[in-house]
């Protein structure tokens, strides 16, 4: 990774998927201080602090999230509404990357105020860098946004862009059971 200043990333939820991505990014040379994590549970924050010294750990969303160029949504889908509400004022200018299963990009636009939303559907091997993630970008997402998403998800394994949000379900089905062969997949 280059030594140029890295855009600040913020993870909402500091569980398994967030830890896998963060670990990969730091191993690739990203400074820990360029990563904010909102994680309400003290024991999990302590684990993250021990594993990744220098991360900026928050117990709750605050105005520092406005610094983030990219928000990564990594909470359980059923907790998305609760997690997003306190972030709303601070994140509308950022690119949003969701790894949450089943939360439509329309809902992420509504909750964050940002039209720049990418959904990723990683599979479980992503946790050990061997995954395949289908990616879908809304129209407002730029080429530079896509490049940042690819850089952030690189530690999880391969990424493949799909043209339609509904194709993410097909990716999930295929990547859960074997190698992808669908013609709906394309590289950017
Ligand atoms: N693990 C996978 O292989 C995998 C694969 C594909 C997609 N995903 C998706 O990735 C997302 C995260 O999965 P995961 O396995 O990383 O789950 P996880 O380990 O449970 O991580 C979620 C984290 O978010 C925290 N959290 C709960 N409420 C919060 C709030 N209001 N604000 C901020 N953080 C909050 C949780 O704390 P507590 O645990 O203490 O509640 C937990 O540390 C899910 O949407 C899942 O669908 C996971």
Morphology:
globular
The first-level CATH class name: Alpha Beta
**CATH second-level architecture:** 3-Layer(aba) Sandwich
Please give the radius of gyration in angstroms. 15 Å
Helix segment count?
Answer: 6
Reported for the largest beta sheet, the result is:
9 strands, mixed
Structure report:
The protein is an alpha/beta fold. It has one domain (9-178): Rossmann fold. It has helices at 16-27, 42-51, 80-84, 105-112, 143-153, 167-177, and strands spanning 9-12, 35-38, 56-58, 70-73, 95-98, 117-121, 131-137, 157-162, 185-186. Strands 3-2-1-4-5-6-7-8-9 form a 9-stranded mixed beta sheet, with helices on both faces. Helix 1 links the parallel strand 1 (9-12) and strand 2. The longest helix is centred in the N-terminal third of the chain and has 12 residues, at 16-27. The model is unreliable at 177-188 (pLDDT under 50). The protein binds NADP nicotinamide-adenine-dinucleotide phosphate. Residues 12-18, 38-41, 44, 74-77, 79, 82-83, 99-101, 122-124, 126-127 line the site of NADP nicotinamide-adenine-dinucleotide phosphate. The site of NADP nicotinamide-adenine-dinucleotide phosphate has 27 residues, from helix 1 and helix 3.
